[in-house]
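User: Structure tokens for this complex, please. No commentary.
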Amino acid sequence: MASIHDVAKEAGVSVATVSKVINNYPDVSDKTRKKVSQTIKQLKYHPNVAARGLVKGRSWTVGVFVTTPFTNPFVAELLEGIKTALQNSGYDLVHLSTRFDDPSYSFLEHCMSRNVDGVLVFGVDRDDPHLEELLESDMPTMFVDADIQGRRAGYITTENRAGIMQAVEHLAGLGHSRIAFISGELDNAVGVLRLEGYTEGMKAHGLRLKDEYVKESDYSMEGGVRAMTELLELEERPTAVVCTSDMMAFGAINVIHRSGLNVPDDISVIGFDNTYYAEIFSPALTTVNQNIRSIGSHAIETLIAMVENADFEPPVVTEPSNLIVRRTTAKPRNTVKL
Amino acid sequence: MASIHDVAKEAGVSVATVSKVINNYPDVSDKTRKKVSQTIKQLKYHPNVAARGLVKGRSWTVGVFVTTPFTNPFVAELLEGIKTALQNSGYDLVHLSTRFDDPSYSFLEHCMSRNVDGVLVFGVDRDDPHLEELLESDMPTMFVDADIQGRRAGYITTENRAGIMQAVEHLAGLGHSRIAFISGELDNAVGVLRLEGYTEGMKAHGLRLKDEYVKESDYSMEGGVRAMTELLELEERPTAVVCTSDMMAFGAINVIHRSGLNVPDDISVIGFDNTYYAEIFSPALTTVNQNIRSIGSHAIETLIAMVENADFEPPVVTEPSNLIVRRTTAKPRNTVKL
DNA sequence: CTGAAAGCGCTTACAG
DNA sequence: CTGAAAGCGCTTACAG
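Assistant:
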């Protein structure tokens, strides 16, 4: 690769001057600028990012810290949104390979040795050991779907409570009263807010809350299977169930079908996320839509704003959600008044 | 962040010595080594990767060039496999944000300005404009699911032909003779090999090949929908269809169901990939399994081997595939001898 | 408007 | 076994 010296020599100027035209400094004569630009093209010169980063203390790189597997459709869509937003930003995405087996491993130190300019964090618990030092540091950070804030850390999430309330409202409107709820982990804001949406939604329609109708799970299909299995064993089986992920809904529907019952005739099911698969699953899944890609894009855009402007206040963003009715919800078989 | 100078001063040695203990050089006394190691821990010192990379001409970074969206389940699984293999390698993954709107954009130059040590490429056509310069360069490269080789480029793929032959054999064994084939793009090895698997499989069982039973598509669900729609309009409708991706199979099944026919009673359908969703789709999808994660891991491992040893011959690897029979295949309704 | 020089944080012959 | 010094490819005051 041609270096800045090669360009300088070829163009008959100093490296300082070459640097100035690369960085669009104004104090360069048009003639020189033109000449240098030409030789840059001619030599196919591209500044070495490591060298530039070394002196500027930056890397034009943002790190992602994702604990969930990439096969999780939420993560996949999120990454897709991130990719789009990064397209013309000049930043590249680096996935830091965490060595979780090493107890002294520090995500923050990994970031710093890589000179990462900012990080995007998804899927960490409130009590993750890596979190504290990250929040105390000067590292610009955006959390996705978590309500964690810091001096240099903001977050972006979906209207979780309102989304679930719409789901409950839809079911209540169809005549359901025995509505169960399969929740994600309740040790973080997202889980708690969705549960609140459920309880508030039930109350708003004068429906009775029963402890046994609420199952805490983990957003995975297997989790949905487990929770639904328990719900089916109940004396008074629910006629509808609201799940807090599409994956759990798929799992629940599988169990229901396997037990000889039908969705939606016997039991209505609602998911959350509106992933790609919600539509192609049969029956097509009624679900709460959140615009995951736009969350990813937005997260990156604000992160870059934070990186480039130390005074940029770490933002708190809530994206809207809305119910998409498809084929897994229907009136309950016997609309008996209880 | 503490620098190597801080460590040197604190430990009372020269920076050269600190560098030597960091890099495990043998010519350091035990006493010095111990002292330095201690202060490194104490100061939480981590070498600046950019600085090290600048002098070594490396970055301990591998780039990925993926044209397909991350939401493609194949890509998601591939990345998951890559992530696992990277875990303790000391390398990080960087997703180069391509600026496709810029006609002068060069993927290779982007890699070089980032000092990327090697690249993984998936989903590029044979005639991709970025390919040529990449193959001519010294950049260690591994292609996934392509048969592109170069002085420093190898590839890894699945037993494509054999996989499809198994699918055809399964259908023939059930008594099908009107077997259609929905192919991916035929401008690359994967597409061609799978088509070969189909034609050879048909011949092997003495089944008649009909041009109208072969549809070229693009691996997407929408593509599956289009192709299946055409197949259903045929005078002599096929009783079975082999698709070269799970997504196309999902699309095909949707169309079949929408047209009032049943899978597998009226038409059997087979997919390819055995993605996560094949199992939870209802009916569960019969499909050709390829071990995508292991392909990802393997690709990274060989790439790193190529990076660390210039004499390492770029490998050509073929991973096994096998048919997984689930619920979308059955005997044809009327097993009429033709 | 242009360039010489110092410095970013490392590594690596080389001398002692 | 240890360290002084040059150099990796850039940027940035600063002097002219």
